[in-house]
Amino acid sequence: MLLSLKLKPLAIGDLIARLPIIQGGMGVGISLAGLASAVANEGAIGVIAAAGIGMNEPDFYTNFLEANIRALRREIRKARSLTGGILGLNVMMANSNHGDLIRTAIEEGIDVIFSGAGLPLTLPEYRTKGSHTKLVPIVSSARAAGLICKRWLRKYEYLPDAVVVEGPKAGGHLGFSEEQIFDPAYMLEKLIPAVVAEVKTYATPYGRPIPVIAAGGIYTGRDIRTFFELGAAGVQMGTRFVATHECDADISFKQMYIDSRPEEIVIIKSPVGMPGRAIRNDYINDVAAGMKKPYKCPYHCISTCDYTNSPYCIAHALISAKKGNFKSGFAFAGANAHRVTKIVSTKELLAELVSEYEMAARQLAAEPRVNPA
Q: DSSP string of 225-253?
């Protein structure tokens, strides 16, 4: 495959991102209007995360659903006032109020909705007449991508505008079993070509491209180059954007990434029924040792959460961490979080990624080609 020495724009329908980089949506207040608008201003795609977005609303504990909708509407409008770039929203299908969140985002004219944490088989039913919002499912296998394409075509006569493939090195909740996370057969490098081939069987007959976006563990511009060679049209990155000035998390949350060591990036069992990747701290150690963290569940925020038997509340733990209170919570993070060494601006980060990509491309172009015997 002949690739450009320069990063090519990412086209999602009629949306054109100058940089083919999507800032991953990081829930419970990590990526809100501040980070998303800053990324969008640099020509990439900035993403607000819907999960727990109403945490600062005065009635969050007593009126969870309305508080989240109100906060979501405000964050989208705030981000739009700060940028003319492309803005997305990440919505977990496991959110008990995902339909309300999706409808609200479409009403507000969000550019793209990224949806995973459960198969988004019904996502197109929320589209309204005249809506220009693009719909992008997040999957962890070619089978899931094919199932979504088939269902959307049959029921809605609609194909995904793009597909994000999230591999097992991602942070937060993972769409893999604990065994699969470390199984080479499920590496992102294996998943991308399979998903590219799968969606092509749907895209080609309809003459409509479905770009595939690689996510999970991508850290450098060289990594971006690698996944472009495997057929990806763009990448999604979350961990790199945490340690930016514009990230909406507390400074101590960002410092947690900088101070982390490789052995502290661990897989935990989450109350929502999926494994997750986080930075180990005393809170996680206490839970692993069998200690319970008393709580009441006013949210019922995740439909799969076994809150009656869980030793802690995932929402409370993540809200605490976002605010810098690690005695009552912990930070989700990708597999490469320990490589973060300093806080930079989104402008600096994206410029570094572009420079690394172009350097890798030039090096590859300069390598002698060996003709097969």
A: HHHHHTT-SEEEESHHHHTBTT-SS-HHH
Kindly list the distances between the CA atom of residue 29 and the CA atoms of 166, 352, 355, in Å, as whole numbers in the listed order: 21, 26, 30
Residue 188 shares a structural domain with residue 314: no
* Beta-carbon contacts of residue 33 (< 8 Å; ≥ 6 apart): 48, 75, 76, 78, 79, 82, 248
Residue 329 included in any domain: no
Cβ-based neighbour number of residue 356 at 10 Å: 17
Task: Return d(Cα 100, Cα 113) in angstroms, integer.
Answer: 13
pLDDT in tens, 299-330: 555 555 565 667 677 777 888 889 999 998 99
Q: Provide the residue range defining the domain that includes 197.
A: 10-249+344-366
In 3D space, the residue among 231, 243, 136, 148 whose CA is nearest the CA of residue 188 turns out to be 231
In the block, which residue shows the tokens 């930016």? Answer: 244
Alpha-carbon Rg of the chain, whole angstroms? 20
Residue 227's DSSP bridge partners are none
pLDDT tens for each residue of 70-117? 999 999 999 999 999 999 999 987 766 888 999 999 999 999 999 987
In a domain, 4, yes or no: no
Domain count, the chain: 2
Kindly state whether residues 108 and 42 are assigned to the same domain: yes
CA atoms within 13 A on the CB side of 128: 10
Q: Are residues 112 and 213 in the same domain?
A: yes
In b/e form, how buried is each residue of 116-152, taking b as 16+ CB within 10 angstroms? bbbbbbbbbebbeeeeebbbbbbbbbbebbbbbbebb
Q: Which two tokens stand for residue 363?
A: 């090096």
Cα–Cα distance for residue pair 319/302, rounded to 1 Å: 14
Q: Of 371, 356, 240, 368, which Cα lies nearest the Cα of 5?
A: 356
Look at residue 327 and tell me if it is in a domain: no
Residue 228 to residue 231: CA distance in whole angstroms: 5
**Beta strands 275-279 and 172-173: pairing type?**
antiparallel
pTM summary value = 0.92
Q: Residue 165 to residues 93, 189, 250, 292: CA-CA distances in angstroms?
A: 16, 10, 29, 35
Is the residue at 332 inside a domain?
Answer: no
